[in-house]
Amino acid sequence: MTLEFVQWRIYVGPPFRDPDDLDYYDWSQLTSGVASSFSVKSLLDANLSASGTSMTLVNANAFPTKGGAWVGPFGSGEGWEYVTYTGKGGDTLTGLTREPTAKREHSGVHSSPADVLMWWEIKDNDGKLHVTRQMSDDWASITWNADIAGVNIPTVALRNNHVVVIQMRTDPSVFFTNYLVGFFDSPQGKDDYQNYGEWTVKVICSADIAAKIEVGPYKSGDLDMAKNGSAQGSQALTGTCKERPSGDFTAANPSFDAESTIDDKESTLWIAERLVGDNDNDPYYNITDSVNFGGLRFSQLYFNPPVGSIPGSRWIELTMLTGTFRGQSIWTAIGGMINGQYDENASYGWILTDMDATEMDRIILCESEEAYTAQNPLSEHAIIQENKEFFQYIRPEGGELWMRLGQLNLWQARVRWGDAYGGVLHEDLSPTERQWDGPTLPVPGKCQTLNYIYNPSPVPSNAAGYWELVTDRQHFGYEIHSDENAPWIKIELPGIGLKLPGDITASVPGVGGLLAINDASGPSTAGLPTSGKIKIGDEVMSYSSRVETGVYLSGRGIDGSTAAIHRKDDEIYFIDPLNNFATDGPPINKIQWFRQNGTIYPKNFELWVSNLIEARTPDQDDWQEDYVNLHNVLDGSASSYSATFTTRRIKNFIFKFNQMTTDPARPRINQIKAWADPEQYGANWLKGEETVGDLVYIILRDAHMPVGSVDRTAVTDPVPDGETAKGNAWALVSDLMEYTSHRIECKLDSKFIITPDNTWVTPTFSPTRTWTKANAVSIEPVWANTNGVSQVSLKWELNSKADEGTVNYPATPDLIGSVAEIGPYVYATETAATLAAKRRFYQGRYPYTIVVSCAEFDPFIVPGEIHRVQWKINPTMPEMDRIYVVTAVDQMIENNIGTTTLTMTEIGREQN
Length: 912
Known about the structure:
6% of the residues lie in helices and 36% in strands. It has 6 helices and 60 strands. The model has no long low-confidence stretch (mean pLDDT 91).
């Protein structure tokens, strides 16, 4: 069954133009379903000469203020001519652009009263109109095109890229309404002795026009320059167990390198190895302790490394308060067993090798020197000795150590922890000498350290009170203090990256000329102020103004330099008026750091900035000479910091951390940002506040689409950070749609509508139509078997890029086929990404399609709709009941009869 009456007609109008052109006609005012009138015509009221630039009509009221028109013949040698005009005054159209003399096939003269038409109706068509609406393979975009044909070729009207309006009606008693608004493309003709003058032409939508226009590139996101820079810093934390109790991270073995601060992820962080702060536990206090006493004392004990540590990861730190390192030995109780034999007074000794040491030096006794130095890279020990066997007799759950001075039998320092061995004494140790009084020290857990307190307050009542059990305050081999060794982090910002796109001479361009400038993506002056000085090689130039493609020079070879030849790709540097240094540093007006999900913040810190292309770091001599000390914060307590200042060129900057809010503590930062001045960046750099729809609007506007042609009201998701490549506008838009899970439809009137696309992540589908034998003439199912996809591996990320990952469906690849690696795509959760991977697997592995011939003509079904098909193919089999997504719609009108055919892909379930 088909609709018995469908009638159509076609008009050709003005050419596609940029909205800023003086003769532009705004085709977006035409809307599908509206009964627009195309009888915009008049007569010449005066002759138009071959060189005339204005023409007067009998009545120009119906003509727009600018656009185009066909002017007809009314005398010998005259013919039809298409002209555009830029203005209208009364009944006179002004600013005419005429067909070139060499290309016209008429005299150029038009005598009054010749016809003047804004719209040309093509009447000699064959009555056939074929319209195809299709969805892209990724289901992210919908476009359309149409085919018409006829005889008696209207050569004057079949013009590429001219606006075409096809009107339609389904009742001879009603007005025609707009059906399609498109553009002519690639007319073809054929004629022979019979003079039929056959022709065909395609009508394309505005999306196909956009596909022919190159735009971009576009940079989206905020103007945080740090995330595209590089970072280095003081020694990062070695060993996650030292800071895991802080709760600042949850990953098993995260990186704490400085780069973590500029990766644009809140969850990652830099943690320095060195502890800073005002240490109230300085050995110089030297409080008398009746048990751990003498010139050489136990200061830190590490006996219980976590599982998986480097073999030999146990050590003892001693501090030399007074005296010399001569004649000492260290002894450990071993639980009554030595060499397999029981001895109630068994102990094991280590005769230490004499070495030079001065007051306050640290001595390390370790199981493995290699393991110790690897895990304590900041150790400044004066002496280190290893003895693997000695540490075999130390138990983390309990033990005792004694320090003995030579053959004098002077027992000085002593420490006992856990269950200990209170009855074990060295045979030379008097039972009454240095008795342990009170409780033992606590048992160290994994990665914990027994740390001696030199200045406890109040003074402890027993020996154990001089010790504390710590994890995050391990500082083997160095003293905690704030000095020139305070941890730092340096950020090097990316340069503005401006270069010459081609060679220039010493005189061209000259003063007043345009110096073309490129960055990596093409013509750009992003990062330059409106005027200033630049340097290429040894030549300094001044410029008075800036445009997107370059700067207008006001001087060459200035400031004692000489104008010279320069070559393509020579770097362009900006002369910073602050100190007359040539720099490629971006213009920065705000620097920030952030701490997320932690309680330890920088309290006392410094900010140093530099416009030098290369600047030293604080571990190098005289590094301050390369920087300006911009800010000092002495008593901060907030979890973020922001320094806002007058825009200045910054290539490198340093944060130096002297103290944290927890004292002492290791410095740590999650994010560091450096914001560029948006006034010095072009329109193609978005500022981080735009939605996905806004970016599509910008791209399509750059592709010369009118303001009224883009509807983005349903889109609120922000544009992900990133940079597009230079390319055709429609390709950029389509890729953006797929990447961000949106869909763009070029409607039948060539206007665009952007909406979120939930096809991949909707848990269940609600079909908008159901096809049965009652409303469909036939179905043609095709159960294709490509066997090309065994698994989909989909990369995904959050819109903010704060989280990302890869999901695989199915978990184990199927036997036949290969893995399809796709993405990244933006999804709100990993669960949504997993569902999307599942759907895309179905699409790739089971491209089951069905063609439905509808019983009635329906010109308004849109690809992307979800439909159901319920059909009993075989009387002996159950009824087929499946869900599909419409991927193409074919409309055919012939002899005033319309038919609709749908192509759909199954989406509702997995097939076998």
